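Deliverable D2.4 — example input (structure tokens):
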């Protein structure tokens, strides 16, 4: 190839360079373009060209590699270009490309740093295509960094520059962003177009049924006919109209009424029926509920035959894991089913099966999300011994490392007498004590030196019972690690006020269901007035039952519109891999003997 390239004339390469750039301006400089040449040809000519032309050719080569999905090569080529030696147009181009490459490396903050270069003050002087590319890179970086509102604002700003399918895709992205924001962040910002999107999302979220959502959307469109979202309704809302026309009139609630799971099933049933009665009181169209005892059905085939004969359109249950696994192994189901547990099989189940539960793994992933958004990068873990602790730790490790975090070490908590040693091992206090002893032996006299812990740990991931957590926090302080942030799952919170216990856990942050954190929720108050135990840890099951009722008519919506989030009482719900309902939870902190709600980390 090199031998063939050598005879090419200088005139040919001059033409190649001309194809690489836009018309120059006196101070802005030329903007690289990808020419009709291979990456190798561009790089060979760059090696034999003056500095300015070489930079243009290398930028073009890096861009070509990026567009061919050869990200490592693109990054390597871009590293050869000195940014400060470029003119503003080229700096903008290079900064944008670097941001795109950093996003491919899962480094959104590095992408945002690249897009903060002073040259971007002149972005508006560049061709529209480059403006769009740069601003889309910024929007993607903001979203990847968890700054959802800022990402939406960026996409609203881009919208007037787009047309055709690009405009449609951008509209869908804006809706995906604003609809994922919590209600508290859907307040006016002073930006007219963005505020319209936020108002649409707010009226959508405040509606509890599909019919109410569709009515709210229609009213918003009528009142804001000139808003871009009304002129071009996001595809998710177009699809919603079709789904809302489908009615479910008969639901089967399949739960065990006897045996070891009877008390769990009772709480789920009571939460489900509380939501049903609340819907009836608000004059909503409600389905008929038929209750079946899973301990007396004989087989799932018998149950489905009976349910079909009874006119059932949707099944909520079963709860028993073995029955859920049976359903998961089938090719198809005769009736759409929302199981109230998860199959242990990694095999994807039939299209008619959805699975919902209070998975501890969800909470481990929630800790990972929160800690990462707080800027944490290096973790240690304390989890219980046994299968449950292993599963929670595995879920945390997988999610944490996928984000780019490091899990330095983990300890399985078992015997209380071993706790101090385990924490000392995590923080390498023994090594510090050994160094102090060695110094004393060398000097031959006593040395006044307090043990020191390793200082490369950003936080502790904790999964523990209330009793374990009550011991762990004081032990951390005793082992010189009391200042290390602790992020925990909900299992340390009983839901019942205990000031002495809360004081011992002071400073621990934990995720929890909205049901237990929001004592003023009307459905919780109604349920707890009839079932006082709903105020304690069983409240999570009441919340799950209530959410199962809210999910029942929304399964088609969740499947057809993947970005749909439902604000439930057991968390913010979405449909994940294998049609499993995943939860994202709010956060709280033990502070001065009280449980203090923490603000959501979405920006």
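Example output (designed residues):
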């Amino acid at each position: 190839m090199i031998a063939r390239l050598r005879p090419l004339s200088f005139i040919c390469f001059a033409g190649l360079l001309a194809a690489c750039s836009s018309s120059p301006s006196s101070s802005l400089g030329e903007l690289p373009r990808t020419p009709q040449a291979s990456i190798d040809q561009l790089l060979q000519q760059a090696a034999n060209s003056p500095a300015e032309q070489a930079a243009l050719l290398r930028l073009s080569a890096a861009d070509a590699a990026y567009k061919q999905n050869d990200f490592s090569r693109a990054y390597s080529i871009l590293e050869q270009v000195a940014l400060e030696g470029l003119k503003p147009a080229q700096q903008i181009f290079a900064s944008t490309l670097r941001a795109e490459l950093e996003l491919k490396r899962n480094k959104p903050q590095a992408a945002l740093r690249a897009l903060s270069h002073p040259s971007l003050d002149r972005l508006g002087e560049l061709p529209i295509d480059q403006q769009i590319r740069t601003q889309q890179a910024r929007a993607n970086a903001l979203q990847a960094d968890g700054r959802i509102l800022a990402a939406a604002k960026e996409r609203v700003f881009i919208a007037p520059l787009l047309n055709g399918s690009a405009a449609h895709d951008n509209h869908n992205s804006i809706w995906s962003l604003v609809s994922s924001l919590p209600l508290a962040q859907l307040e006016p910002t002073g930006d007219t177009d963005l505020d319209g999107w936020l108002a649409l999302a707010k009226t959508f979220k405040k509606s509890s049924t599909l019919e109410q959502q569709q009515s709210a959307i229609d009213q918003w469109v009528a009142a804001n006919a000139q808003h871009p979202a009304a002129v071009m309704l996001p595809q998710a809302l177009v699809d919603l109209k079709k789904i809302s026309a489908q009615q479910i009139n008969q639901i089967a609630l399949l739960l065990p009424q006897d045996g070891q799971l009877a008390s769990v099933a009772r709480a789920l049933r009571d939460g489900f029926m509380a939501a049903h009665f609340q819907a009836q009181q608000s004059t909503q169209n409600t389905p008929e509920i038929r209750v079946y005892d899973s301990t007396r059905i004989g087989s799932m085939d018998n149950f489905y035959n009976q349910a079909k004969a009874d006119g059932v359109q949707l099944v909520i249950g079963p709860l028993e894991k073995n029955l859920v696994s049976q359903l998961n192994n089938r090719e198809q189901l005769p009736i759409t089913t929302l199981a109230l547990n998860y199959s242990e099989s990694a095999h994807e189940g039939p299209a008619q099966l959805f699975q919902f539960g209070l998975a501890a793994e969800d909470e481990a992933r929630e800790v990972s999300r929160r800690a990462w958004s707080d800027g944490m990068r290096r973790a240690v873990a304390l989890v219980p011994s046994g299968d449950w602790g292993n599963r929670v730790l595995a879920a945390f490790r997988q999610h944490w490392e996928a984000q780019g975090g490091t899990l330095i070490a983990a300890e399985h908590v078992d015997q209380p007498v071993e706790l101090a040693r385990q924490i000392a091992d995590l923080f390498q206090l023994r090594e510090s004590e050994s160094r102090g002893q060695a110094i004393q032996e060398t000097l031959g006299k006593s040395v006044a030196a307090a043990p020191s812990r390793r200082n490369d740990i950003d936080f502790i991931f904790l999964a523990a019972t209330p009793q374990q957590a009550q011991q762990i926090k004081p032990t951390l302080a005793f082992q010189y690690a009391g200042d290390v942030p602790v992020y925990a799952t909900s299992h340390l919170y009983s839901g019942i006020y205990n000031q002495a216990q809360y004081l011992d856990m002071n400073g621990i942050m934990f995720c929890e269901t909205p049901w237990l954190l929001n004592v003023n929720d009307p459905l919780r108050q109604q349920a707890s007035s009839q079932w006082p135990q709903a105020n304690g840890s069983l409240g999570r099951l009441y919340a799950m039952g209530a959410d199962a009722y809210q999910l029942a008519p929304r399964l088609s919506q969740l499947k057809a519109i993947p970005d749909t989030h439902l604000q439930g009482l057991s968390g913010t719900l979405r449909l994940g891999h294998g049609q499993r309902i995943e939860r994202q939870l709010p956060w709280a902190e033990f502070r001065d003997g009280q449980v203090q709600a923490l603000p959501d980390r979405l920006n």
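The chain has a mean pLDDT of 87.
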